[in-house]
Structure formats: structure tokens, C-alpha cells
Write a structure and sequence with these properties.
Length: 282
Amino acid sequence: MKSSKLIMGCLATLSLTAGASSVHAEVDRDAIAERLKPAGNLCLQGEDCGTAAAREAEADAPANGIDGGAIYNRVCMACHETGAAGAPVRGDEDGWADRIDKGWDTLLDHSINGFNAMPARGGNPNLSDEEVAASTAYLLEPVMDVPDVAEDAAADEEAVTEEGAVEEEAAAVAAEEAVEDEAIEEAATEEAAPADEEPAHAGIDGEAIYNQACMACHMTGAAGAPIRGDEGAWGERMEQGMDTLYDHAINGIGAMPPKGGQANLSDDEVRAATDYLVEPTR
């Protein structure tokens, strides 16, 4: 009797072991098949090289190439699936009720720049504004109508392109007008008074004005003024040209006051006095 029970027990154990081995073998076969699956398929010329599958994959891809769900799963899910740090859980209408009243623009600004305990861009500074917008749209889809961020990005890009084209065209027009203005100005200069025409101050008695306003310094060298007729003192000054010397005489330079301190003198009178002053060294 005891022998029969022992035999029956052994048979039952063998049966269970065989069943388990069968299941284990099946699992192992699946794992092995997965590991041995080729990384790619050989495609010969003339065969369908998977273009249909490629087209299906392209159709499923986001329009702007940004997968908001993937970014959410990588960056945002840790808090917005668990409520960590007070983050509203995705799909929780009550948790989002007050927030969605602020509107899409405000919520997106919070995502990009941070808000309360949430860091800017979810703590990933490498995300672009477009990527943050895509992940934010995915987060909010269950509780509010979100804009088509892909369409908005395309519209923005088109607007930037158009704006750039307009700016380039405006710059080209401005450059062309500048060339025309320069040509007109040169023509007007060429048509100006003949070279031998005397300047407006030619008939003014520069010597009298010099004696009245300039002689006190330019005859004595007071305050470092160059003396009339001193070629050494006037050499470098004359190299600056008469227009510069006129400007210094009219507006003052260094210790010399404008118009030699005679504010009632006209510009032409000062030019005439300057001509007389530099006459010996011209």
C-alpha cells in the first residue's frame, strides 16, 4: 500500500515538472526568436522595399516632427502622473479647472519659464520653445482645447520668411535710393559755383577783424596761440585744411573761445579774419 502511494506521488511530480518545462520551453523559444530576429531585411532591386510601411510611419509622425507625448513621458510625466510637488495630474479636470481658465498662452508661459515649484522647461534647458509647446499640448489635451502647435509653428516660420523677404526687398530699395541720392548730390556739387568764384567772405576786411578780435593772442602767443607768420607753429595746422581751421575759429578749440570771444561776429567775418591770420603761411 505504501509503495503504491509512493509511485503515484512520483508520477504526479513528473507530470507537473513536464508541464512546467513545456511552458518554460515555450517562453524560451519566444525570447530566443526575439533575440535572433534580424536587424533589417535584405531588399533587392525591383522588390517592394518597405515603402508602404515607410509611408505609414511618416503619416503617423507629428506634422512638425516633434512628438509631444514622447517629450512628456521623458520630462514631465514624473510629476504630472503622480502629482509630485503639487503638480496637477494629466486628465484630472478638477486639478486643472482653475488653471485652464488662465488660457493656453499663460500655461505655455509657465511651462517655458517655470512657475512655483515647476522649473523652466520642466528642468530640461535643452528643450526648444516648440518642444515645450508640443509636450504642454499633450499634457493639456484631456482637459482643454489646445491649439495646433504644429500648425502655429509652420505659420510662424512662414511669417518669419515673409518678413525676411520684405526686409530684404526694403533694404535693396533703400540701397538703390541711396545710390541715386549720392549721384544727385555729386551732380549738384559739380554744377555748383565755378572753382574761380570768390567765397562769400572775400569782400570782408579780415585784417580789421583780426586786429579787433585775434591779434591779442596771435601776435603774442598767449595761451599757446600760434603766432601769425610762424611757419613752424602753423605747419601741422595748415595740413588740416581751411575748412577745419574755419571750424576751429568759429566754434573754438582748446583755450581759444568761439569767434575769438566776439560772439557778435558773423561766420563769414570770422572766416575773413582767419584768412588774414594764415595768409603768411599758406
